[in-house]
Amino acid sequence: MPDQRSSVPLQSLCFHLKDIELLDMPVGWTSGSQTAVLHTLLVFARGSGCLHTDRRMLRFSPEQCYLLSPDMPFRLENEYDEALRCYRMTFQVIEVSDRQYSPYAGELFPGRIEAAAYPFSRLLRMIQSLHTGGVDTEADGVQRNIRFQELMGFLLEQNLQAEPTLTPVQAVKNTIRYMHDHYMHQHITVQYLAQLAHLTTWRYTPIFQRITGKKPLHYLTELRINRSKELLLHTQEPLRHIAHEVGFADEYYFNRRFRHITGLTPKQYARQMKRSKRIRDWTGHEVDIPASPERIVYYGETFGDLLALGIQPVGSDNPGSAPRPLAQETLPQVHDIGYPFNADKTMALKPDLIIFANADEKQYRWVSKIAPTVTFNSYAPLEQRMQVLGRMLGRKSEAQRWLDAYGAKAQAMWSRMQGHIRPGETASVLIYDRGGRLFVMGVAGLSSSLYHPSGFKPTEPVGLMLADGLGYAEISPRRLHEYAGDRIFMLLSAEPASRQAAASMMESPLWRSLPAAQSGQVYVIEAEKWNYGDAFTREQLLEWLPRLLSRT
């Protein structure tokens, strides 16, 4: 292998740190498209997902580093296992030669951008020292850059060798790729995989679990089962041949493992899936679901979306999923599956589809073992939710008809209300919940019915929440003036402590100083009845809002 250092003028390079930033981002976060202006080092301490560049897509996980060259476009996407923690360092590289100084924009690690760093804990300590150390004087700046030179020396030493040394994490990732290529071989054991990674089994297994969330043999079994699903659907081979082809020595053991993971025998699965369709859900899973599901369990905030499509689920979570008490009179019995999600109650209903309005990947893994499960964004705009459900459940035309009718009714209602609303008038929806904590509603709940081109406008900070897709946000009472609109809709929680907190606020001097309170434009509303943004409740609100607003 040629020495990679030959293409890098290493002895002529100097490094100057321009900025170091700590990114603490939630699950599901994406950076949007960006371009590295200078050399950029990304160091991941927590989270897992994808780094997209102009060349390819790379997966990142804890204890990984990537070095981007100037002008390289990139995008980060954090997945749904855990929040992201990433250090982003931008720095200049200067080439010094014959008394000349010029920027160096070439690759530091020719042909690759992933950087080895072992032990990672040492690199992390160096980065944290740079991040927390202040630069109050010129001497501080000099010391900081000396520490950065040491950091770059640490990375260059490990990554510009003729034979780069793999970190334990990189070695384990190589064995995962090996498993994907050789899952059909029965010789694969944890001991064998650990030997491939040059690690002891007691070191190998924890690293593997941190990367995948599973033990090695559980991961291997799922690989084999997933491959067997493809063979069951697309071949007519006997069960014993399929078992051997995916790495099981015994078709009876294969049958037991298949049923344990899927809840069905291989033959039952094949019969059911041949009457199915494949969809891509909110968080990116490719899921085979029944073409016409008959026993749906819905877990989430917008239960009423299904009611508007004429769909009767067999189960749902309670409280919070149905627009109670509005829907209860119109519904036959919907079984309560519990909140948090109760697997035993759900399995007893024998669902053929679970709609799971949650992005938690760890929960999804065990919920999806009960029945085909799709994640669903219950905070998405109403139109988007209805279209997604329509496509998913074979009700596409019904969803569009409902949206057209609702849009016409909403426009007619707001047009009739023009005499009661000033042009540009703002509104805010507030609630005390979880004791004495004050929240302002964004895209979720009642507020989704108030903000309309011909209706109320959000205040500026609420408008930012809507743009970011936030369902709600906790605020300090000190910031109430910033969020309070010309009209305030104060929701009363069912919790006694929260109701008392709301009552105390509405008797306070702070509240009486708000323009809405001074002008009598405050509406006190029961949250359990009206704080829903689902399609069923939105229709009901078209009749109720005019009566409420006409009182003033």
Descriptive report:
- There is one protein chain.
- The chain is α/β, with parallel strands linked by helices and 552 residues long.
- It folds into four domains: 4-159, Sandwich (Jelly Rolls); 168-273, Arc Repressor Mutant, subunit A (Orthogonal Bundle), CATH 1.10.10; 286-392, Nitrogenase molybdenum iron protein domain (Rossmann fold), CATH 3.40.50.1980; 419-549, Nitrogenase molybdenum iron protein domain (Rossmann fold).
- It is built from 22 helices and 22 strands.
- The strands form five sheets. Strands 1, 3, 6, 8, 9 and 10 form a six-stranded antiparallel β-sheet that branches. Strands 15-14-13-16-17 form a five-stranded parallel β-sheet, with no helix packed on it.
- A hairpin with a 3-residue loop joins β18 (427-433) and β19 (437-441).
- α1 (120-132) runs antiparallel to α2 (138-159) and α4 crosses α5.
- The termini are far apart.
- Residues 1-6 and 319-327 have low confidence and may be disordered.
